[in-house]
Amino acid sequence: MKLPILPLILVVASAPFLTSCCATGRKQPAASAAVCGGSDGKSVKAAEGDLNEYSATSVADPLEPLNRATFWINDGLYTVILRPITKGYEFVIPKPVRTGIHNVFENVRFPVRFVNDTLQGNFKRAGYETGKFFVNSIAGVGGIGRPSDHIPALADVPEGDTGQTFAKWGIGHGIYIVLPVLGPSSLRDTVGIAGDYVLNPVNWVSFVYGGYAWTIAIPSTNSLRVTHEQLGVYDSATKSSLDKYLAIRSAYIQHRQEVAKK
Amino acid sequence: MNLRLLLLASLILLHGTASASTAEAERRLQNAVNEVLAIADVSSSNNALIESLRPILLKHLSFDAMTRRAVGPGWRQFTEDQQKAAIRLFTTLIVRTYSSKFTPGEHAVIKFNAASAPAPGRVEVPTTLVYQGSHYSVTYRMEEAEGWRVTDVVIEGVSLVANYRAQFDAEFKKGGANAVVGALTQSVDHPK
């Protein structure tokens, strides 16, 4: 019963460091800068051509040396340990079964999305999530199938998470943090990950039935599935980069910004 | 009365040309995507795919604008030769990255969503890509210059140009244009 307290402590302890959203926002392309950037956006554009279309800085990174060290340890870890393990997972479990496992875990994660949609005041989306959960649990046999994909209103419901809720409340990233094993994050999103962890039923079993082997097996299978998917994203984001660390940092911050808009 | 009619007529005309250009951009993008998919579907190896996709991408993507914007204001300090080298290397890198996203035998399905025009001469076409069972949101930013060309691809909110902008900026601060071209050469010669 100790672990659920950890996220709470994290929330309280880090609250003073979380700054407002505007400080770390990515510069808008010139086309939309006119809308939100104020009066000088246009004159700058006229003088400099299109060279200021994109901005280089995306997030405060005062811990860069430490982050880079963690990043390279993670990178090594992926290559030496996680990639062989996920290759094994890919080899042992055929694709249709992997898809089924993926669907079940995503379906069970329903409270993460429902609670955050509600916290964001987005009751319409919380309703869609509930509909999706029941359709997939019943017609999809415990969430193995995704019949909701064939219902237009339920096919593309943007997913809620705790970091996104904080963003909607106006809380900025604070600083960029590379977490051991888990990879890119920020102060805000690290607290968000803790929230998601508590809200995910997959992690509840070990607290309720702690001590049995199968209670470890379920979250482990989930981790394996997530790792398998994330390594694919990591590889395609770093493959043609000049600097893997900067490529991932930029991609992460841009992606989270997009998620916060949904 | 006449003036009002004229105003109304010009408004309708303006609106007409704006949506006509959006439609034109969309049509152009759809052609490009179909051309790419037709090749990707029959290609057996990745190297063959790179070779056959290159001319198509050169036709539909504005690599000059992409390179310039990815470098940012430092571009003005590039000599003409350095600019040419940067564009050439960046093109190779993008073509290679793009081609590597296709796995032989896997068919991609692309759904086009309603396009918008954020500014005159600019169109954004959001699409949904279904590939290997996963859904991705991919938005194409297009501009009109000698026909409609793609100037950026935004996958799940991650802009290709902005991603390189962050990396080029660090190189430029280290050692100017030479460092940027050097890092590009390194990346093209030694794929990770």
Q: What is the CATH class of chain B?
A: Alpha Beta
Tally of DSSP helical segments of chain A: 13
Beta content of chain A:
under 5%
The low-confidence parts of chain B are: none
Oligomer status: heterodimer
The largest β sheet of chain A comes out as: 2 strands, antiparallel
Let me know the number of strands of chain A: 2
Number of strands of chain B: 6
> What general outline of chain B do the C-alpha atoms trace?
globular
Strand order of the largest sheet of chain A: 1-2
Description:
The complex is a heterodimer of chains A (262) and B (192). Helix content of chain A is 64%, strand content 3%. Chain A is mostly helical. Chain A has one domain. Chain A is globular. Chain A starts with a helix and ends with a helix. Chain B is an alpha+beta fold. Chain B has a single domain, classed as Nuclear Transport Factor 2, Chain: A. In chain B, strands 1, 2, 3, 4, 5 and 6 form a six-stranded antiparallel beta sheet that branches. The longest helix of chain B has 41 residues, at 2-42. Chain B is globular and about 65 Å long. The model of chain B has no long low-confidence stretch (mean pLDDT 86). The chains are: A mainly alpha (262), B alpha+beta (192). The A-B interface holds A 26, 29-32, 34, 48, 50-58, 99, 156, 236-244, 246-247, 249-251, 254-259, 261 and B 65, 68-73, 75-76, 93-94, 96-97, 100-101, 118-119, 122, 128, 133, 135, 141, 156-159, 161-171, 183-184, 186-187, 191-192.
In short:
By secondary structure, chain A is mainly α. Chain A has helices at 5-14, 30-36, 40-48, 64-92, 95-108, 110-119, 123-138, 152-155, 162-168, 187-199, 205-208, 213-238, 244-261, and strands at 176-179, 183-186. The chains are: A mainly alpha (262), B alpha+beta (192).
Question: Which keywords apply here?
Answer:
heterodimer; A: 262 residues; mainly alpha; disordered N terminus; B: 192 residues; alpha+beta; Nuclear Transport Factor 2, Chain: A; 6-stranded antiparallel β-sheet; 5 helices; 6 strands; 20% strand; globular
